[in-house]
């Protein structure tokens, strides 16, 4: 149709303008205002409960869905109502118009008698109540009869009658904007136009198209009534679904809120426990360091007591034995030599114990110097060789760790001397990725699998057990690797 072509042209113009508008950059002020609005909307949305947010989102989505459904149903109902009315009107008008157009099968014009008969028909009172205008179109688009005599025998585009020439009944309830609708527009009443094919009574061939305009008042009222009913049903269904969803989500929201409160309380309790555990760990570390300090003081005191007590008494015994030996017989001299040898060995052992318990000043030395010092003292005391394989070690370390490392290496070397005769004594130390590893190895015959278990006499290997407790008290890891080719005592600390 002509109006469709016009509408299509207007749509293309609007699309082009819209594309141009999209290419133009938005003003800076508009961008800032849009950003502020979006920020304000997000802030308000975060303050709403989950159920309210859900209902708003569901209302938008469900509302749009129901709007499209309701609009589709309304359009379909309107189309069906108009088409039904058009079918009835077309059958009604066929009865009146077809007898007058039979002559078009032989001639291209209507006779004067037929035109007069049609004029009388359109002027009848019963027909004018519904039909306000009639046109008869020839197949080439020429109007051979019209209530408006000004367009009689005028040819118009075939867009109006194309579908009707194919045998279809076409109806339109839109505004009448075509050139051939001047008369109908002047009536100022709502109309809908109907195109109906008119056939030859003998051959059934379409020889013309009848167009008539019917008042649309009653039809529009019926369509509006049905549309209101449809929208009422759709609105009620939408409201019912939103209400049901609101109560379901609200119940779930309450459960979530209760769980959030419970989780928050649990988090507070866990935080309190974590703080309490941290305080306990701090107290435990402090107690461990204090115990290590007290233990070292005790060992020093025992060493000093051994040096000042038993060592001095043994020295006095040896001196007195020399005085007694001058007045003894040969038999007594042999006994005195035996006593002197035992006292000398005891004195040496006491002095060794005293030197071992007396810890040198290691507060101001580095870890490398500390390991060199303990190896040197062991070599001087035992006359054995100790090899040091030291990597890059930290320059500074806390005093409790230094004390622990000194006693660890000292005891491990003593065990290597006693059980492996000091063969292959090696001290290995390395510091990688914040982890300090210390190992003392030997090339002896190794240790028995039950070395850390109770012996038959009920005594344990107090040296190794003490090493384990000392290392683990500072948060370190203690381990022993032993085989036929030697033993390795290992300690690991995370600094």
Automatic annotation (TrEMBL):
Domain Histidine kinase/HSP90-like ATPase: 405-494
InterPro entries, per the entry: HATPase_C_sf (IPR036890), HATPase_dom (IPR003594), Sensor_HK_TwoCompSys (IPR050482), Sig_transdc_His_kin_sub3_dim/P (IPR011712)
Origin superkingdom: Bacteria
Gene Ontology molecular function: phosphorelay sensor kinase activity; protein dimerization activity
SUPFAM superfamilies: ATPase domain of HSP90 chaperone/DNA topoisomerase II/histidine kinase (SSF55874)
Keywords: Kinase, Membrane, Transferase, Transmembrane, Transmembrane helix, Two-component regulatory system
The Signal transduction histidine kinase subgroup 3 dimerisation and phosphoacceptor domain, residue ranges: 300-358
Residue numbers spanned by region Disordered: 1-30
GO cellular component: membrane
Membrane-spanning intervals of the chain: 54-73, 230-249
Keyword Phosphoprotein: no
PANTHER family, per the entry: NITRATE/NITRITE SENSOR PROTEIN NARX-RELATED, SENSOR HISTIDINE KINASE YDFH
Protein name as it appears in the record: Sensor histidine kinase
